[in-house]
Records
---
Amino acid sequence: MLLSGATLAIVLIVVSAPRSAPAELIVIGTGVHRELPPAQFGKAWRGAYDIFVARCTKCHRVARVIDALQLGVTPVTRQKFETTTIPKYVVKMLRKGKSGIAKDEARQIVEFLLAARKLAQRPAAPAPLPTPPQPAAPTPPPTPTPTPSSSPAPAPTANPTPAATPAARDAGAAGAVQGASS
Ligand code: HEC
């Protein structure tokens, strides 16, 4: 269908909206003082969130991690911070001297960061879809209804030659309808 195709195209445009679009990941504060309010993650994430904040703010601010979450790129070395690389970064941080991060904690932090990154990639609110531009499609001629033999189709007035066959008559009728509508 033409309309659903157009709608799909619009949805794709919305989905591939630029990075500047507001995301569902809520960040409060500015600059190095940015934080992730815990309430947005729900109670199920509370334990992981607390571990994340306790362990990942020991050497630098959480803003560094927020940068990575929001951009999908790490702020210092400009590497991808995505599903595939987030675990590597947590391990890298774990291995730093005196990180104090236990393996079990690292696992929970990874889960938390993956969920947070997903939130950051989602648009904040479903943007109202713009009205799809209505294509100026020509109105198709009405399909000639099969005329029962008892009621013959009225002879088209615009057609100078009398219709000889039913097919010709139908064609003439269609022509007359089109002629009348233009
Ligand atoms: C022991 C200190 C320490 C701890 C604990 C620590 N970090 Fe780091 N982090 C660093 C240092 C130092 C850097 C600078 C870049 C580097 O060495 O990779 C850094 C850089 C980063 C970067 C940017 C990396 C880049 O390549 O741009 C991210 C993201 C990050 N840390 C996330 C975390 C997370 C998540 C945690 C908790 C699991 C954490 N850090 C815990 C020391 C630490």
---
Amino acid sequence: MGLTLLALGIAGYLVTSQTDLIGGRTHNIYPLGSIGLVVLGALIAVGGVMMSQAGAKSASQLKCDKCGMTFGSKAALDQHSKDKHGMKAA
Ligand SMILES: [Zn+2]
């Protein structure tokens, strides 16, 4: 997450640079600006994937029927059921 924020900061710097360039010379398009947009777009895509993964993880959280504990994966729930409740993993 820290790396993502760092990368976002760099992207923000690039976008700011592009904005300054556009403000100074509205008729020229600089490669640096395009690169900044590409980097920003890639970061947004990566961030979106990370956020969707985090959302999917919390959405797919499994709850133990016996004691109500929640687990991030079926394997963890199965292991818990076996250890705490003596149930065989599926
Ligand atoms: Zn349990």
